[in-house]
DNA sequence: CGTAATGTTGAGCGCATTCAAGCCGGGTGG
DNA sequence: CCACCCGGCTTGAATGCGCTCAACATTACG
């Protein structure tokens, strides 16, 4: 899924994949407490991962789409510490971690690749921490939309139109907001002509305005 | 520093370490934008890592102490994306990442070890996301104190007494609070007899009460 | 077609923030 | 040695953003 792989490297990936697995919308790929065996590369579909505090509250830690890898949390303790839930019917490649380690000992580029995937996740989470720690509701939602649409665009989808696979509550959990706040903020964006929102269908009318909310530049206005 | 290493594995670690480096209090081990070459194992001292948004705000992403590793953020793009600042005079082992990859291809246990370190960081950040996304000020500070004292205790320090190496502002940045809120919350804990706070010196008088704030159990009270 | 899940909107409230003033402690230089 | 200064910390008062609670609208789905 990442670019720049030679043919032999693609063969390698085939070697890693023990099986394919389909996950129905609403069901779990793995759950908190489950034994860790494999990483999963998403082929199609859309997931959320979430952790739970002891007293029931839970926090969505990310949304994953085709080409992304889930399951890294399980490596430390041989048990998963979060749930991975399919938000639409999905198909994943099951890659047993033993096999990954074995092959990545033999193939430098694969080893490097695995390291980068883990580091990328760490850096992504830094960004989420910045969002949760210091942004206001509008900034959070704008950041979220820009990030989603950018990742979709990289997969050949529209730059300006997207369908949300998750509920307002799930967006809120991820962004550290209540669902009502998410809804209200969407409405405010719509009033200002920045987006068009019809339930889960979102059309971005003014990307610059969104960027300006995230990173207000003195001069820039609503071009 | 982690337990259960054989003699030969310890030799390996020696092989990885290119040099030691001392970092004076207040100065940077590495900074955002700097080329990535190495991971750093902290021998002594105390660090914070922080990321900055484009418009100046910054977010402390973690505090690291002896035995912990910093620099993982640099692997993805070959550049660091955060700053690592020494909060007291420190000494680190410089471990060139090329060397780490080379050796971990040869030694299974080292490879596994590297993977676990990265996965542990991912899981740690999940916990921080839960904190930032869903906890109130008191819960955040209580969680923070319990985590700090637990890590210190694992290093042979007191279970109930600690010296904060960071300012209220840095604590606040990490916890997604303003420094005044941190200060007020400390005072509230002190009023309630849960802790004794004198500037950076903190003595925990009632660990159970702290745990109860983090994870309120119906029956449990201020034993 | 009816029911439950999801989403929107309003009113009032509360927690954390903002702004501001004062305190404490440590280091420096007169 | 003491006065001063400055960064860090504490505390107070007022504000406001996001939350809570509640009613209603809309959509999905059996």
UniProtKB/TrEMBL annotation, chains A, B:
<dbReference type="InterPro" id="IPR012318">
    <property type="entry name" value="HTH_CRP"/>
</dbReference>
<dbReference type="InterPro" id="IPR014710">
    <property type="entry name" value="RmlC-like_jellyroll"/>
</dbReference>
<dbReference type="InterPro" id="IPR018490">
    <property type="entry name" value="cNMP-bd_dom_sf"/>
</dbReference>
<dbReference type="Pfam" id="PF13545">
    <property type="entry name" value="HTH_Crp_2"/>
</dbReference>
<keyword id="KW-0804">Transcription</keyword>
<protein>
    <submittedName>
        <fullName>Transcriptional regulator, Crp/Fnr family</fullName>
    </submittedName>
</protein>
<feature type="domain" description="Cyclic nucleotide-binding">
    <location>
        <begin position="1"/>
        <end position="78"/>
    </location>
</feature>
<dbReference type="InterPro" id="IPR000595">
    <property type="entry name" value="cNMP-bd_dom"/>
</dbReference>
<keyword id="KW-0238">DNA-binding</keyword>
<keyword id="KW-0805">Transcription regulation</keyword>
<dbReference type="GO" id="GO:0003700">
    <property type="term" value="F:DNA-binding transcription factor activity"/>
</dbReference>
<feature type="domain" description="HTH crp-type">
    <location>
        <begin position="135"/>
        <end position="208"/>
    </location>
</feature>
<dbReference type="GO" id="GO:0005829">
    <property type="term" value="C:cytosol"/>
</dbReference>
<dbReference type="Pfam" id="PF00027">
    <property type="entry name" value="cNMP_binding"/>
</dbReference>
<dbReference type="InterPro" id="IPR036388">
    <property type="entry name" value="WH-like_DNA-bd_sf"/>
</dbReference>
<dbReference type="InterPro" id="IPR050397">
    <property type="entry name" value="Env_Response_Regulators"/>
</dbReference>
<dbReference type="GO" id="GO:0003677">
    <property type="term" value="F:DNA binding"/>
</dbReference>
<dbReference type="InterPro" id="IPR036390">
    <property type="entry name" value="WH_DNA-bd_sf"/>
</dbReference>
């Amino acid at each position: 899924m990442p670019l720049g792989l030679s043919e032999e490297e693609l063969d390698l990936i085939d070697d890693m994949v023990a099986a394919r697995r389909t996950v129905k919308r609403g069901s779990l790929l793995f759950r908190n407490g489950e034994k860790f065996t494999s990483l999963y590369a998403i082929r199609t579909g859309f997931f959320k991962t979430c952790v739970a505090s002891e007293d029931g509250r839970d926090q969505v830690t990310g949304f994953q789409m085709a080409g992304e890898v889930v399951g890294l949390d399980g490596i430390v303790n041989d048990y998963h510490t979060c749930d991975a839930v399919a938000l639409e019917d999905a198909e994943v490649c099951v890659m047993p971690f033993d096999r990954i380690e074995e092959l990545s000992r033999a193939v430098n580029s694969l080893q490097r690749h695995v390291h980068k995937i883990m580091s990328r996740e760490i850096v992504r989470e830094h960004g989420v921490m910045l969002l949760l720690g210091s942004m206001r509701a509008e900034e959070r939602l704008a950041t979220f939309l820009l990030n989603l649409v950018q990742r979709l665009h990289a997969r050949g989808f529209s730059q300006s139109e997207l369908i949300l696979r998750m509920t307002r509550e799930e967006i809120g959990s991820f962004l550290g907001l209540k669902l009502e706040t998410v809804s209200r903020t969407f409405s405010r964006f719509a009033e200002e002509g920045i987006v068009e929102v019809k339930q889960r269908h979102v059309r971005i009318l003014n990307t610059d305005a969104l960027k300006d909310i995230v990173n207000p530049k003195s001069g820039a206005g609503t071009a």
